[in-house]
């Protein structure tokens, strides 16, 4: 049972595939039933929307009505319910076309081999036109024909030669008229689109005029720069060669940069929260930056005078450096006695701290004793103890030490 089901599905799929292939290959066929098929022959074009959509394959009679077998190209198939067929005139003297109008696309599709109801208006022949004329008009037409015969009598050879010479022109005119009759719908659409385009251009007349004017100015500028453009074009091949070399190196650079970008991806992913946290900081920095503007202005003014100052310093520093170098021995000698010097300046300031109405004054008190009489400087007086070579700072009770805590060296 499963084998039969599988076989049935395969047959249906094959039929669908064949139907699709038939439509795609242009073998979509229909039968049009019309009252008559006057001047319709095998090979007559079938038109849809102004385009050649297929041909007539056969014309036959069935129950007093004409049956017209047609085949359509795959681009125009399939048709939908509501489609209509109508025989239209291709030329004044007899030639006809079969025109197809498709139904709404929302309707059901007509399968290949289906039937359409066609409409063939009664043909209007030249005899029918003449039969509609009254006797007086027919008499005038006959008189016109007789006069025309009298005019052409004796000139049959010239007329024949003229017609023979005009044959190619008449044939070309016939081809043009035949093309106009066949492509009437397409020409109508083209004329409509051309009219719309012309209307748009008319509405944008000012813009078009400005564009044309600018184009003229650009052309004039290019003409005035002709020599420069020629030089540019001469240098262009070398530039293109260098650009080709650079572009040739780009893939290798990109390949080398790809691992770096992969390594940077974690850091870049963390930049988003950091940037979000920086936003309040940047908002707070805005007034601080505004307050910095006067400082920057002052710095700019200072920097304006800095070169001159540096020039003066360049001239002064060597002499100052030489002076400091000459003072180095004296400073080295006085440096251990800094506590005594500071103590002396403090005592001197205290001595002149008193003031009266006349200003500051100093009191001097002279003290005398056995130590004042120094007849033998090398021997201390009896009852005294004196250090004749005191260490720096010992007289003020502050033994001298340097910045590293070491004593005098």
Average of the residue pLDDT scores = 76
Main structural class: alpha/beta
Oligomer: single chain
Gross morphology: rod-shaped
Contiguous runs where pLDDT drops below 50 for at least 5 residues? 1-26
Strand count, sense and closure of the main sheet? 7 strands, mixed, barrel
Gyration radius, in Å: 60 Å
Strand content: 5-15%
Fold topology:
Layout: H1 2-24, E1 28-34, E2 45-48, E3 51-62, E4 65-72, E5 84-89, E6 96-101, E7 114-119, H2 126-131, H3 135-152, H4 156-165, H5 167-182, H6 184-203, H7 205-224, H8 226-334, H9 338-351, E8 355-356, E9 359-360
Parallel strand pairs: 1-7, 2-6, 5-7
Antiparallel strand pairs: 1-4, 2-3, 3-4, 5-6, 8-9
Give a verbal description of the structure.
With 409 residues, this protein is of the alpha/beta class. The protein has a domain at 27-127. The chain contains nine helices and nine strands. It has a seven-stranded mixed barrel. The chain has a two-stranded antiparallel sheet with strand order 8-9. A hairpin with a 2-residue loop joins strand 8 (355-356) and strand 9. The longest helix is centred in the C-terminal third of the chain and has 109 residues, at 226-334.
């Amino acid at each position: 049972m499963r084998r039969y089901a599988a076989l049935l599905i395969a047959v249906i799929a094959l039929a669908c595939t064949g139907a699709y292939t038939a439509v795609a290959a242009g073998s979509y066929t229909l039968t049009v039933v019309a009252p008559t098929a006057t001047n319709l022959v095998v090979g007559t074009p079938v038109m849809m929307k102004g385009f050649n959509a297929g041909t007539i394959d056969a014309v036959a009679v069935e129950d007093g009505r004409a049956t017209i077998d047609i085949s359509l190209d795959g681009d125009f198939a399939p048709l939908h319910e509501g489609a209509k067929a109508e025989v239209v005139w291709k030329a004044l003297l007899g030639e006809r076309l079969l025109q197809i109008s498709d139904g709404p696309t929302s309707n059901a599709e007509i399968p290949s081999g289906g039937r359409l109801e066609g409409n063939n208006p009664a043909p209007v022949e030249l005899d029918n036109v003449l039969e509609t004329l009254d006797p007086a008009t027919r008499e005038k037409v006959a008189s016109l024909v007789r006069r025309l015969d009298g005019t052409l009598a004796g000139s049959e050879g010239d007329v024949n030669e003229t017609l023979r010479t005009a044959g190619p022109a008449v044939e070309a005119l016939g081809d043009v008229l035949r093309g106009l009759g066949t492509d009437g719908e397409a020409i109508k659409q083209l004329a409509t689109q051309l009219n719309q385009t012309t209307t748009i251009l008319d509405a944008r007349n000012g813009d078009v005029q400005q564009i044309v004017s600018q184009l003229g100015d650009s052309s004039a500028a290019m003409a005035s720069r002709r020599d420069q453009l020629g030089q540019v074009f001469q240098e262009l091949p070398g530039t293109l060669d260098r650009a080709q070399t650079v572009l040739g190196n780009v893939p290798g650079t990109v390949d080398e940069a790809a691992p770096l970008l992969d390594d940077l991806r974690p850091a870049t992913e963390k930049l988003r929260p950091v940037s979000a946290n920086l936003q309040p900081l940047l908002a707070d920095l805005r007034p601080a930056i505004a307050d910095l503007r006067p400082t920057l202005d002052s710095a700019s003014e200072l920097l304006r005078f800095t070169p001159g100052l540096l020039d003066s310093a360049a001239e002064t520093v060597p002499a100052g450096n030489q002076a400091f170098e000459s003072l180095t021995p004296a400073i080295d000698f006085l440096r251990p006695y800094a506590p005594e010097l500071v103590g002396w300046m403090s005592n001197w300031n205290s001595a002149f701290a008193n003031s009266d109405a006349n200003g500051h004054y100093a009191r001097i008190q002279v003290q005398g004793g056995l130590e004042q009489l120094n007849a033998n400087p090398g021997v201390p007086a009896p009852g005294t103890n004196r250090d004749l070579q005191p260490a720096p700072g010992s007289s003020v009770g502050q033994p001298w030490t340097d910045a590293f805590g070491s004593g005098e060296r």
